[in-house]
User: What shape does this take?
Amino acid sequence: MLIVNGPVEDAEHEEFGHPERPDRLIAALAGISDLDLGDDLTVLTPYAATRAELARVHQGAYLDELGAYCYAGGGNIDADTYATYDSWSIARYAAGAGIAVIDELRRVGTGVGFIAARPPGHHALADRAMGFCLLNNIAVAAASLTALGERVLIVDWDVHHGNGTQSIFWNDPNVLYVSAHQWPLFPGSGGSREIGGFDALGGIVNIPVPAGTTGDVMLRALDDVVAPAVAQFSPTWVLVSAGFDAHRGDPLADLALTSGDFAMMANRVAQFAPGPGRLALFLEGGYDLAALRASVAGTLGALLDCDYAPEEASSGGPGQEQVLRAANERLIAIHMAEDSRPEED
Ligand SMILES: [Zn+2]
Assistant: This one.
């Protein structure tokens, strides 16, 4: 069973020539249609996040400012990030989508959730829009779960580091944030020595990989680096920042993944969930429409055991050495931080 958030008219969140455009969502939804799910697809009623739900991760002053900016007509918040008159409303629905999907997963106790919404979220900080992102959709959803006492694993396989999500949960012992991303690349953060604050040492796992990295390297990173950290953390929920801009066809980055790689990564990540009905994937980046469609279909098709053949998995690229080095540097950084932990009062 696939549970998807309800559709929202998002055509007015657009800037001419900008890669983060309404056609992306149409492509992602076409990927779902390609699976012919029939009765195995549940589409929910749209839900906009409330101020209290947003305020779990965003500062009130930022929410006021963003709302006012949009109602004044919007514009360019920074060199990459735009907002229009309608963006405040559209972004609140994108941020509420995860909450609605998780509520339904909790109600039925089975299935996989997919949040097909834009604008994306993982670069949005507590107090600032950034990198095409206005509100941090996955962080809002994760915070709704930790408020219920859940322990949340966030796996971010978007090609960019999710600096906003990392920053929001930096010192939160109830969230394990894992990101594999191309480096160097926007936003520039995501080094292996970024491991979390003193209340959550080791709660951040960053795996920077070079241009050309293939799927075999990503799978080994999941098996050798991520799986042990996940076993130690013992999540009760798994959320995925499922950007598809690590696909070899993407115009914004240079990794070499295929839809077949995303399918295999999805199966690995699903095994991190402690039981059924505790996995939800959030659309983040992905700017080549055909690659996005195929990757959404490949990912969800694998998780739902559909009769859908994705592209062949990729292998033989660089990155293995960098993954091992990142794993070592991370462990050393954790030990050093533990040694320098301030005394309790
Ligand atoms: Zn991205």
Observations:
- The longest strand covers residues 175-182.
